[in-house]
Amino acid sequence: MKFSEYKYERPNLEEITAKFQEAIEVLKTSDDFSKQVEVINEINKVRNYYATMSTLCHIRITTNTTDEFYEKEQEFFDENSPIYANLEFELAKALLNSKVKDKLEEKYGKQWFRLMEASQKVFSKEIIEDLQEENKLISEYRKLTASAKIEFDGKINNLSQMGPYLVNPDREVRKNAEAKIMEFFAENEAKFDEIYDKLVKVRTQMARKLGYKDYVEFGYLRLGRTDYDSKMVANYRKQVLEDLVPVVIKIMEDKAKRLGIDELRSYDLNLDFKSGDPKPIGDRPFLVSQAQKMYASLSKETKEFFDFMVEHELLELDAKQGKAGGGYCTYIPDYKSPFIFANFNGTSGDVDVLTHEAGHAFQVFSSRNYEIPDYYFPTLEACEIHSMSMEFFAYPYLELFFGEDAYRYRYKHLAGTISFIPYGVLVDHFQTEVYENPDMTPDERKATWRKLEKMYQPYKVYDNAFLEKGTYWFRQSHIFSNAFYYIDYTLAQVCAHQYFIKNNVDAMSAWESYYNLCKQGGSKSFLELIKVAGLDNPFVDGTIKKISKQLLDYLNSFDQTKLI
Ligand code: ZN
Description:
By secondary structure, the protein is mainly α. It is 65% helix and 4% strand. The protein contains 23 helices and five strands. The protein has a three-stranded mixed β-sheet with strand order 3-5-4, sandwiched between helices. Strands 1-2 form a two-stranded antiparallel ribbon. A hairpin with a 4-residue loop joins β4 (328-332) and β5. α1 packs antiparallel against α2, α13 (349-366) crosses α14 (380-393) and α14 packs parallel to α20. The longest helix is centred in the first third of the chain and has 31 residues, at 33-63. The radius of gyration is 24 Å and the shape is globular. The mean pLDDT is 96. Bound molecules: zinc ion. Zinc ion binds next to α13 and α14.
């Protein structure tokens, strides 16, 4: 069956509610283990069915945002998803109070129960209004950033259309583009300040209503982080500052030399080569067929996976009229199908989709047979290990996509993944300070950002007075929409770097470890997964130092004269 034949129907919420209530009743009253297992199996079918329909609807409306049928269906899900979420909440409560909980934990694993416990701790009817207020503020932020109309290069651009100008080989163009973008943020400064101030206050209020000192611990629980806390993250940030920031300083010095610029400015940091970025050597059908070759020779598991994606038409990659922007990987449980959505535009980003998003898809394909839907994907920081590592497992095959330019791409990619980490850590440090001190004024928050920016990105020098004030983060949507979700990318990157290093030493055993990790899905917590994979724990002193040294050696092995 091909994706176009996957059948959508609107779920009947009354029937679903009745089935949940029946299941909850049995879980509450029965002490018969096998009966409870039977009920769990049945209700998981219902959960998979609901997820299948809502996912099919989401894929189809994002593929064609003007489709009237799916527009109505999307409204149905927007309206009813809180009701459905409440059913899941009540089900979790009944499972946690089951008379045979110990036996269930033994059968299904502790992680399922830990996730359910975390979800119970961050929800209560008391905070429903706060949650609605939070959603409203996030939508306001989205609308505000989407409203940007920036006059540049003889046309009107939105923020993402300004992106290419920031990596234009002409320095004047980059400088002016940055200044124009910041005009938009400066004009709307009061609005950004107000939205963020309200978000910090409402999140703090929710946390306090449920008995927490501030939003920090509450935010961690909301992300399902069951085995590390903000103290451990602080220690990780300290290691990055001491051991990895010097490597990035070196990357920036090499960049300055290559570009022939004496003193780099903020608008120079995104450009890697005088001649511009490496580009793939073919269009979408060519790149997909090259990816098919790559996955066929990488391993028998990846061959099976990618052939499945192609045969069932689960790759929606062309940019087209009416299609939503961005890219994602999702999973359709009833068809055991991962799905990849992207907008190819002829840049190296197209190849990133075929490695990064395919890494996510390969992981969920490898854990598609779990009985518990909550185990299809792990928590977010672990999710990115699979995708970011796949980018590195693709290194030996990059000539398929870039020809001779693969050399420059490898350097750009590796240097980029390293340079990203201090920035990601900065975003986390900033949010920690903000939520630990929720009464800071907007100006104090900006001063905090600039102070931290100078610590983690000492090479970032601004010509622009508004940026100098500490406002770069206005554009970082996660800070507004998903508090504390960001350190995840850096933790996963540190793990992916370990796969990169292992793959250079012993490709066979690196792959075995990676595939084993993919098969664990979300059945374990982040630190348990790392342990199973035999990776060094980023929170433990010495880990970042060891990795930084190995990465620096590898960077130094590139011939800078070939990186023009
Ligand atoms: Zn990802």
